[in-house]
Design goal:
CATH topology of the largest domain: Rossmann fold
Low-confidence stretches: none
CATH superfamily of the largest domain: P-loop containing nucleotide triphosphate hydrolases
Number of domains: 3
Order of helices and strands: HEHEHHHEEHEHHEHEHHHHHHHHEEH
Distance between the termini: 40 Å
Largest sheet: 5 strands, parallel
Number of helices: 18
Helix content: 40-55%
Structural class: alpha/beta
CATH class of the largest domain: Alpha Beta
Mean pLDDT: 90
CATH architecture of the largest domain: 3-Layer(aba) Sandwich
């Protein structure tokens, strides 16, 4: 296959035509959407946004994507406002004027400022009815199409709603959306986020909400590229940056392998090659990665993998989480559950246990340890060997960084 030259652009917008190796994944998502909605899970920097952008550039006939990044929203009313703006941008003016949403808006006293829809705070008690009305307006206008709402970073929005309005309201948002999916056969939703929705749902369950608001949705993971596609991306970037390579295939392979075929880091390596000269090699790729792992400026923002643990697990479980990751990171091979449990329990003194959960694990509660390990798997820190079930770091790059950061290597 001919490789198309591409400029290195770490963290920047990638044109849909330059997206490498995602056709199979996108086909899987389209196929799923014919029958159900989707939760798209991904580690940061894997390329989730790039996948969504390519999907938006060419949806199948009869299927319309409506995308919105909802990270900045913190109340249900703000969410309704965002959805209503998206819907009304698709409706002709005559349809807008007579819509269920507009009739309800007029009755409740909604306003427009400079032509921009604005829902005043006093409308907050009615957010459920307003959300149902605006979604149904779209479905009534185009009854023969599938409509797919793509809400990026929805876990962050839900977490903000939980903080500002309480657990019940956050759960209500999820329940109303599930109700709409169940009522309308041609309505689909895609939830995406850089923090796992499972953290939000776990918090809601711990607060006493036993609902399962996403059990009708299929979970699809955005993984790194496979090795052939990782190599192809590296080759495209080496060509696009016009770097001289005496062994281009070996250089591209090393570039992809060193960073676990994660597109963002492949871009970073090639961009750094261009910054230091006109030549590229496998040895240079390995050297660039080694230096990035100990870079005091942390230009790859690898510290995020440590920093985010505080918010996700809280101070009461943090000592235990760090002990787990330290043990797995320092091990020369995947660890069996019993071996991992022994290492963790011999590391964390009982007097440093910050909660009953941690004390129970230290005292031998294997089920709670398994629950924690499952959460770390869902957060993409750990994975299990498919043959033995033993635990290892999901990404060798992050394991190398973790060991250097934590003194295990």
């Amino acid at each position: 296959m001919q490789v198309k030259p591409m400029r290195a652009n770490p963290g920047g917008e990638i044109e849909a035509g330059n997206v490498v190796g995602r056709d199979r994944l996108i086909k899987e998502i389209w196929n799923a959407l014919h029958v159900q909605s989707v939760v798209m899970v991904a580690e940061r920097r894997i390329g989730k946004t790039t996948v969504v952008k390519k999907m938006r550039s060419g949806p199948p006939a009869g299927l319309r994507l409506i995308y919105n990044d909802v990270e900045g929203l913190s109340t249900p009313l703000e969410f309704v406002e965002a959805v209503a703006r998206d819907v009304e941008s698709l409706l002709p003016a005559v349809r807008q004027a007579g819509s269920k949403f507009r009739r309800m808006l007029g009755h409740l006293g909604g306003i427009e400022i400079g032509g921009v829809l604005k829902l005043p705070p006093q409308m907050s008690p009615n957010w459920k009815d307003l959300l149902r009305a605006t979604v149904e307006d779209l479905l009534d206008h185009c009854p023969d199409s599938f409509h797919v709402f793509v809400w990026d970073e929805i876990p962050l929005m839900l977490d903000k709603i939980r903080s500002s309005a309480g657990e019940q309201v956050a759960m209500d948002v999820l329940d109303v959306l599930r109700g709409l999916r169940q009522k309308h056969s041609r309505l689909r939703m895609i939830y995406t986020g850089s923090i796992g929705l499972h953290h939000v749902l776990s918090g809601l369950r711990e607060a006493g909400h036993a609902n399962a608001p996403t059990n009708d949705m299929r979970t699809i993971e955005v993984t790194p590229l496979d090795r052939d596609d990782g190599r192809m991306l590296a080759q495209a970037l080496l060509l696009g940056e016009e770097l001289q390579c005496s062994e281009p295939e070996e250089t591209a392979d090393a570039t992809a392998e060193e960073v676990d075929d994660i597109p963002y880091y492949i871009h970073q390596v090639v961009a750094r090659m261009r910054a230091v000269g006109n030549e590229a090699s496998a040895a240079l790729a390995r050297s660039i990665v080694r230096k990035a792992l100990v870079d005091a400026q942390d230009t790859w923002n690898l510290a995020h993998y440590r920093d985010r643990l505080d918010g996700r697990y809280g101070p009461d479980r943090l000592t235990l989480v760090l002990a787990v990751l330290d043990a797995v990171g320092a091990a020369g091979e995947p660890l069996a559950f019993d071996d991992l449990g022994h290492r963790v329990r011999s590391t964390v003194p009982r007097e440093k246990a910050g909660s009953d959960f941690v004390r129970d694990v230290i005292d031998g509660d294997d089920e709670k340890l398994r629950k924690l390990l499952t959460s770390l798997e869902r957060d993409h820190y750990l994975c299990r060997d498919p043959h033995t079930g033993h635990y290892r770091f999901r990404f060798s790059l992050i394991q190398r960084w973790w060991n250097m950061k934590r003194g295990g290597a």
